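Archive entry. Fields below.
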Amino acid sequence: MSDKAIAIIFFVLIIALTLGITAWASRRNKDTAHHYVAGGEIKGWQNGLAIAGDYLSAASFLGIAGAIALTGFAGFYLSIGFLVAYLVVLLLVAEPMRNLGKYTFADMLASRFNTSSVRSVAALSTIAISMFYMIAQLNGAGALIGLLLGFPYALSVIIIGVLMTVYIVAGGMVATTWIQIVKAVLLIAGSVTLSIIVLSNFSFNPLALFAAVESEVGNEALIPPPPSSLAASLDVISLNIALVLGTAGLPHILIRFLTVPDAKTARSSIVTATWIIGGFYLLTPILGYGATLFVGRDAIAKANPAGNLAAPQLANELGGPIFFAFVSAVAFATIVAVVAGLVVAASSAFAHDFYTNVIRHGEATEQEQFRAARYTAVGISVAAIILALFAQSFNVAFLVALAFAVAASANVPVILLTIFWKKFNTIGAVTGILVGLISSVVLVLISPNVLTGVSPAEGVTPLISVDPLFPLKSPALISVPLGFLGCYLGTVLGGRGAEREREQGLQTSYDEIRVRANTGFSNIEREIRTATPESEPRTT
Amino acid sequence: MDRNDEWVRVERTEAFKELIRSKRAFIIPATIFFFVFYFGLPFLAAFTTVLDVKVLGSLNLAYLYAFAQFAMTWILMHLYVSRANKWDDLVDRARREASEATDHVGEGRRA
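PREDICTED_STRUCTURE:
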């Protein structure tokens, strides 16, 4: 049997498995609450695995291993940043988000700001971030399947697009969560096995692996890239800002805290997720350097200039065609599952925030909402497929970096200030999101990612032959402070002040937000009435 | 009466004040610490070469620092969770205190 036939068998098995899960989940996907957030019934460890699954996207599994294989330590920044980002999420965002939100990120803002303008711009930034992220994943998947199975790019993208649409329309968040859980388990099993095989060549001593890298490739593969120019140094800082803050603004990660019944479960799911994600990222140097040593940098760069196929190539080299097919199929499942989660985030932003709350003023029936959610899921998928077909020449890492930078600049300032700043008002929230969104997108459009210069350096795909107007590849260093500044100036210069807004019913009082965010109370009358005092009630 | 009064009543309970105090006492220093510790690595790596020093075989200070970030994340995470689980008790106490206060204030106002 040819290698390609084995690979196809594994792909079919994975697709059959995910469709089976969807068929099972579709019986439970009976209303909007299940469609958007799995009815809030997901258990802590399940949600932890699903968060890990969302997080271990193609960018993590394929991208980081490839980056370490080709560039050494510089690739490991991604692992550290993605992991430490969980502290931002856990300490600052997760519980208030869980306590204030319902289905979407915009719900959380809307719990404080009772105007459709805030909801609309929040939905806009959610859709923008999810789209950039989704196009990146589809783009990567197209390239991956193309190389592994020999399908043309367009056909690969359409296959994945159709699959994800089926998962979501039939199974909603229930199916998306379970596909994510199964995928996380497969991905971890594959990575651990691959790492053990690599380490077995070094008598299970990671230091021996490092020593081999130093003797065969040189010490520059192990040390951070030496400071070359101010722009290069600032770019490292900027990238790290986007990595560590971006996660707390990614809509598909934020909605994961709404799928669990309470804050305690949200907490325990982050603990599970962080152990899994951290454990996985500790393996990335083993996978990356393993690929450097056993596959070789030239062969990796030849298969894909960004090194995205380093992990499957390593599997082929050390485990033979069957293991290669398994790892490739897992990579494929990874992409499909992450894209499905993104479609849920983007389509609920559209259906729940725009349609139900802005257009219908919250008066759509349950059935209308459910139908709208499914229609928009199809619409979002089709839009993503079409955009991905046009985006074939874009670099995957650039699109992911853009999604993180937009999330860090547009969403994070508003989320933090909604929770922690008493004087924050509607104008501040709207300008903050718009300034963060627009500045990060514009800075990327005039950066070396897009304006590749009159004479592009080696390995850079030329896009527009104009010298970059903004020297950094990652905009976060500038756009994150601009996002905060937009929130501050909008609040101070525009609008009526939080107190006036409250009197006019435009804003919920900060007393309520503060109590709700910190306690999880939602219905104050019920909370107080059902509380059972230790002593007997004194008024009878 | 304004629904807001009910929220304010919770806010004024001793338990809620203690909850906020306890949260601030942990979250603010922890956040400052992990941001400084996190950005220390890219700053040192991007502007200096001090992290190139080898400490154990071929393992250099940069990787050691990077692994220390993993340890920091896990440790801070567990410290947070063990505290947060105690905060849940304060939330329950705040609910009880507010409900008792409701009875008193309700009487006072009507009188």
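CURATOR_NOTE: Chain B touches chain A through 63 residues (CB under 8 Å).
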